[in-house]
Every structure is written in structure tokens, then in C-alpha cells.
């Protein structure tokens, strides 16, 4: 595993552990609409290193571990870091846009950043197949997972399913999609079909944005 990835995991673990044990620290740096609109934009970054509990932290870091090396192998360390941090901020930006009239809306987690890395991995590896812990012998194409997850997140955001920051997940995926194309434009020619397939739900999300927002 690349040293930069190890470093990101260590930072996530240390910041999250501090948040688990120090409620004031957690409240000060979590994503929350009201304080951000009052000038505390740093929360849009710091919230991406906090987590709700150990399970939340583990699954995000495990996904980062699984997908990061593939992205680094194709694009290098610097571009990987740009995708990670850019997707984190894209997730926070979309959440802010969708929930700007909900001052008490809050969220934490690296999910936006990790979703950006996952989408980068899918775009760079169109033949990727994903299996799941409970169904190790059943694998689905990566792009099917990508489209399915986007659609689920759009539905989950509209219906406010669970205690999940669906808008941050969506923003992270969009960030990973856009940044990967910007950093590796050859994908337009190499994997054009996959790019179009992944772009459709993103376009639909922005077209119907007003219908997704719970005002």
C-alpha cells in the first residue's frame, strides 16, 4: 500500500479517535450548515476526517485501501491526492447546496472522498468486477455498481433514508468523475461508453435538482 494512502488512513484514524473521545472537538469540526454559512468553511474539509463510530471509519478506510492502488498506478500519487481531496470538497459543496435551508443539517465521514476514489477506479478500469463480503462468488461490473449507487443515493436523498449523508456521497462521486476526466482526458477515447453510462444519472440529478431538495 502506498505511503500516502497509509498517511491518509492514519490521519482519518487519529482525527476520528479524537472525535470519539472529545465531543467538543467533534462538534467544532463536523459539517453543519449553520456554522458554515456563518464563515466556518473549514468544516467542509475537517468533517471528512471525522466518523460517527468505528464501523463507519473501518468501512471507509477499507474501501480506500481496496481502490487506491489502482488509481495511483494509473495516475500517480499527486493526481490521486487531488481526486481524494477534491472529491471530499465536492461532497461537502453538494451537501451545502442541497441543504442550505436546513441550518442544523450535519454530517461527517470520508465517504465523499472515498466515493471519488471508487469512481476514479471504475473509470480507469472498465473491466473491473466487484464482489461483496457475503456473496464472494457473485461479481458485478464496476460500472453497474457505479450507476446503481448513484441512483440509490439520489433516491435516498429524496426520501431521507437512514442516517446517511447521501448528498455528500453523490458529490464525492461527481467530484471523482469530473476530476478523473480532467486529469486523464484520454478516457474520453479509451472508455467512452463507460463515461457516458456513468454520466447519465449525474446529468439527471442536476436536471431534477429542485425536485430532490426537501425544502
Automatic annotation (TrEMBL):
The keyword Membrane applies. The chain crosses the membrane at residues 6-26, 47-68, 80-98, 105-124, 130-152, 164-184, 190-208. It is a multi-pass membrane protein. Residues 39-184 form the Peptidase S54 rhomboid domain. One of its GO terms (molecular function) is serine-type endopeptidase activity. GO terms for cellular component: membrane. It is found in: Membrane. Gene3D superfamilies: Rhomboid-like (1.20.1540.10). SUPFAM superfamilies: Rhomboid-like. The keyword Manganese does not apply. Belongs to the peptidase S54 family. This is Rhomboid family intramembrane serine protease. The lineage of its organism: Bacteria, Pseudomonadati, Bacteroidota, Flavobacteriia, Flavobacteriales.
Amino acid at each position: 500500500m502506498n505511503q500516502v494512502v497509509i498517511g491518509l488512513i492514519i490521519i482519518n484514524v487519529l482525527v476520528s479517535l479524537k472525535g470519539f473521545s472529545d465531543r467538543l472537538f467533534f462538534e467544532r469540526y463536523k459539517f453543519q450548515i449553520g456554522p458554515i454559512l456563518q464563515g466556518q468553511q473549514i468544516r467542509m474539509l475537517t468533517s471528512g476526517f471525522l466518523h460517527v463510530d468505528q464501523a463507519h471509519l473501518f468501512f471507509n478506510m477499507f474501501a480506500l485501501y481496496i481502490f487506491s492502488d489502482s488509481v495511483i498506478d494509473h495516475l500517480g500519487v499527486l493526481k490521486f491526492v487531488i481526486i481524494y481531496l477534491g472529491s471530499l470538497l465536492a461532497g461537502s459543496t453538494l451537501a451545502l447546496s442541497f441543504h442550505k435551508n436546513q441550518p442544523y443539517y450535519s454530517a461527517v465521514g470520508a465517504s465523499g472522498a472515498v466515493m471519488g476514489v471508487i469512481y476514479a477506479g471504475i473509470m480507469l478500469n472498465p473491466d473491473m468486477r466487484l464482489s461483496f463480503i457475503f456473496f464472494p462468488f457473485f461479481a458485478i461490473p464496476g460500472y453497474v455498481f457505479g450507476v446503481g449507487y448513484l441512483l440509490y443515493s439520489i433516491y435516498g436523498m429524496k426520501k431521507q433514508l437512514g442516517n446517511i449523508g447521501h448528498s455528500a456521497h453523490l458529490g464525492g462521486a461527481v467530484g471523482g468523475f469530473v476530476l478523473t476526466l480532467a486529469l486523464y482526458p484520454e478516457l474520453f477515447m479509451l472508455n467512452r461508453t463507460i463515461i457516458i453510462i456513468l454520466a447519465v444519472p449525474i446529468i439527471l440529478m442536476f436536471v431534477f435538482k429542485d425536485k430532490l431538495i426537501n425544502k
